[in-house]
Amino acid sequence: MDLVTGVMVGSDARLSHRGSVAYAARMSIHTEDSALMLRYKDGDVAAFEILYRRHNDSLYRYLLRLSQNRDTAEDVFQEAWSKIIKSRENYRPTARFSTFLFRVAHNCFIDHIRRNKRHSHSTAIDPDSRPNPGDDPELATEKDFARRRMTTALRTLPEKQRDVFLLYEEAGLSIDDIATATGVNRETAKSRLRYAVNKLKAALAEPANSDEGNA
């Protein structure tokens, strides 16, 4: 089932974070997200296609790195977009669409964890693990090594700090947007991000003996 059909039939359809969705020729790719959501609210499915294309990759990376589990990321990804689809009737652009989207995803993740107390990090997959065909073998090895070190470092962060860091890094949200998305005040969001960055720097500065042994 393609994306447009999935949108038309409702939230039961599975949305693919890897799927290719063409831009509508009559709509500029620079159209503001909130304007696109309003057009989708009025029944313009092509507007939703553009929104989905713009944000599906960053949303999936955020959820995968937050949950450290592919199955969890897939489930929450589907649930978040389903909620966006269902919310279109009542949508009002009171914040940036990306803030709205990642707040929905954040809440879906929290709800998923509460429903699934056996949530595991054991099947983590790095979304950027596939090598770039244009890289030479030495560069590809260095990139893979750096990715694995970052993935390992992210696992050491408390979940709330990892969440804030990924909203900043993957979603590109500002401190104010992160505070809105996570339901905390600005200083709390700023503090969590600062702690996360400092811990990641410290973790990445440590000798990588264990990673070298697995290379």
Strand-helix topology:
Elements: H1 3-9, H2 33-41, H3 45-67, H4 70-87, H5 97-115, H6 137-155, H7 159-169, H8 175-182, H9 186-205, H10 209-214
Structure description:
By secondary structure, the protein is mainly alpha-helical. It folds into two domains: 1-127, Orthogonal Bundle (Rna Polymerase Sigma Factor, Chain: A), CATH 1.10.1740.10; 131-215, Arc Repressor Mutant, subunit A. It has helices at residues 3-9, 33-41, 45-67, 70-87, 97-115, 137-155, 159-169, 175-182, 186-205, 209-214.
Attribute tags:
single chain, Arc Repressor Mutant, subunit A, globular, Rna Polymerase Sigma Factor, Chain: A, disordered C terminus, 215 residues, 65% helix, 10 helices, mainly alpha, 2 domains
Quote the distance from N terminus to C terminus. Answer: 40 Å
The description of the largest β-sheet is: none
CATH topology of the largest domain: Rna Polymerase Sigma Factor, Chain: A
For the record, the CATH architecture of the largest domain stands as Orthogonal Bundle
- Radius of gyration over alpha carbons? 18 Å
Q: Strand-residue fraction?
A: under 5%
The outline comes out as: globular
Whole-number mean pLDDT:
77
**What is the C-level CATH assignment of the largest domain?**
Mainly Alpha
The H/E string reads HHHHHHHHHH
